[in-house]
Amino acid sequence: MSAGGAFGGNRGLRPVPPEKGVFPLDHLHQCDLEKKDYLNCLKSSGHQSEKCRQFSKKYLECRMEKNLMARQDMSELGFRKETETNGETSEEKNSKRIEV
């Protein structure tokens, strides 16, 4: 039998979690309302996540406020700042770029 244990794992080393993609579960249900709002939006929109971005943003903000994930600028998570949107769709912005 190997020195690593019954299943071959090294018992002396601590696992190191990846930088992104893994975060504490919400065992205390601190962000359940935001999560349910997002999931309901997905269900009602035929799972088109673009239509539910505001709920996704609120959910992520809740997780950051409750220390369930590391604080990050929302632009790093794929959300533009409010001043950048100005009520225009991305198609409208792209057409302006092409015209110029």
Automatic annotation (TrEMBL):
Residues 73-100 are annotated as: Disordered. This is Cytochrome c oxidase assembly protein COX19-like. InterPro entries: CHCH (IPR010625), Cys_alpha_HP_mot_SF (IPR009069). It holds the Pfam family CHCH. Residues 31-65 form the CHCH domain. It comes from the Eukaryota. Keywords: Disulfide bond. Residues 78-100 have a biased composition (Basic and acidic residues).
